[in-house]
Amino acid sequence: MSKSKGTALKQRWIGATRSNRCPICGSDSWCAIRQDGAVVTCRRNGTGTERVDRSGAVYWLHWRTEAERAPVQPAPPTKDRANVQDLDRAYRALLAKLGLTDKHRADLERRGLSAELIKRGEYRTLPLNGRSALANAICEVVSDPASIPGVYQIEDSGRYWWTLAGSPGLVIPVRDTQGLIVALKIRKDDGEGPKYLYLSSSSKGGPSALHSVHVPVGIVGTHDLIRVTEGELKADIASALGGAPCVSVPGVQSWGLAFEAIHALGAKIVEVAFDADVFTNVSVKRAAHSLLKEIAARGLQERLIHWPAEQGKGIDDAIVYRLRAGEK
Question: Which of 12, 186, 187, 280 has the fewest CB neighbours in a 10 Å radius?
Fold first, then answer.
């Protein structure tokens, strides 16, 4: 008897997913199955033995017969990223669970966005706590959570749970030319290291984020003139306030990604609007020159936009500066 009990104690618990649903209620989240398949902790079917977890939530233990048992294994990490449709589905489910703090809202308003533009942009706040619940929202809409950058499994007291990576901060959706949300960029609340980071699980053995050109929400159809900058939030603000569509590459060295949006939008004139240091920062200057050269090589008209440093670092800063100066 003691040997059997000891074996059971060593068994791990695997969280339910769409490909490994709870055998009691059929759910793909919140419930868990012991690795040998003999016991299920169900969060919805109250016919089992009631228990309360450390957070005060109720669950029920269900013991299964020998014939019902089916061993399960935790999902192995994968570097294979989901397709863009699943990425969009997963990230929209996550955004639906997130709110926006007053601080982040005030920051966006300070940068020139109105309440309506903030709503359209679907900006959110990624909190420090509650990550398992956020990951479960993704698990409910995709069959392979491990393929979604930012989602990974952790072991806690012998149980495996899905959780979410990422530093707390402002969440900025990255949209492709079809309007699909294919990645999430986080502007970190803390001041250490890079200011902006993709939501990714590469450090956990999972997939990295999709590096994509970003087309702000609402930019559809064809446009003779578009602008190209670096930084998703800059592009959102510049598009909303600057009078011309502005798309973004994830970094100046990734300037080649801009052509997907340039062609999708049917542009004939392309204005390169990297930061104000375009003439003094060697890396930015080289990238801008390469992009301008390639634009011309493809038979399009190219322009370089620049502005005095006192008007701000990015094209969005310069636009807001001029708008506010005109109001005085």
Answer: 280
Q: What is the C-alpha separation between 218 and 214, in angstroms, rounded? A: 12
User: Which residue's entry shows tokens 């104690």?
Assistant: 9
* 43-133-76 Cα angle (round to 5): 90
Q: What is the pTM of this model?
A: 0.79
Q: Which residues contact 59 (CB under 8 A, 6 or more apart)?
A: 31, 41, 42, 43, 50, 51, 52, 53
How would you class 248 by CB atoms within 10 Å of its CB: exposed for 0-12, middle for 13-18, buried for 19 or more? buried
Question: What digits encode the pLDDT tens for the residues 135-149?
Answer: 999 999 998 899 999
Nearest residue to 246 (alpha-carbon basis) of 198, 193, 309, 175: 175
Dihedral sign for Cα 277, 282, 288, 292, please: positive
In what helix (H) or strand (E) does residue 226 lie, and over which residues does it extend? Answer: strand 225-230
Give tens-digit pLDDT for 264-317.
999 999 999 999 999 999 989 999 999 999 999 999 999 999 999 999 999 999
Cα 175 to Cα 264: distance, rounded to the nearest angstrom = 13
Cβ–Cβ < 8 Å for 228, 239: no
Half-sphere exposure of 282 (CA within 13 A, CB side): 0
Query: What sign results for the dihedral spanned by CA atoms 107, 110, 112, 117?
Result: positive
| C-alpha 76 chain-centroid distance | 21
User: How far apart, in whole angstroms, are the C-alpha atoms of residue 113 and residue 115?
Assistant: 7
Q: Domains of the chain, with CATH numbers?
A: 2-63 (no CATH), 84-204 (3.90.980.10), 225-327 (3.40.1360.10)
